[in-house]
């Protein structure tokens, strides 16, 4: 399952992965962390590959 590693995400900017995700599964919570809607996610790995902080993990 795709999730954010909160130790790596600085959660202080608009998450670029919101636009990267092809199915619109990523939103951002009030703290600034990306949230993955697992009912939408197809585990394509685009967010994992494109996060500039390498903060998205698939495990
Ligand atoms: S793995 Fe793909 S579908 Fe799932 S959240 Fe990341 S970019 Fe979106």
What's the SSE blueprint?
Blueprint: E1 2-4, H1 17-20, E2 26-28, E3 34-36, H2 46-50, E4 56-58
Antiparallel strand pairs: 1-4, 2-3
Bound molecules: iron/sulfur cluster.
Iron/sulfur cluster binds next to helix 2.
**Strand elements, count:** 4
CATH C-level category: Alpha Beta
| Oligomer description | single chain
CA-based shape: globular
Radius of gyration: 10 Å
Q: Report the end-to-end length measured between terminal Cα atoms.
A: 5 Å
Q: Report mean pLDDT, rounded to a whole number.
A: 97
Description:
By secondary structure, the protein is of the alpha+beta class. The chain has one domain: Alpha-Beta Plaits. It is built from two helices and four strands, in the order E-H-E-E-H-E. The protein has helices at residues 17-20, 46-50, and strands at 2-4, 26-28, 34-36, 56-58. Strands 1-4 form a two-stranded antiparallel sheet. A two-stranded antiparallel sheet has the order 2-3. Residues 2, 20-21, 23, 25-26, 36, 41-47 line the site of iron/sulfur cluster.
Key traits:
59 residues; Alpha-Beta Plaits; two-stranded antiparallel ribbon; binds iron/sulfur cluster
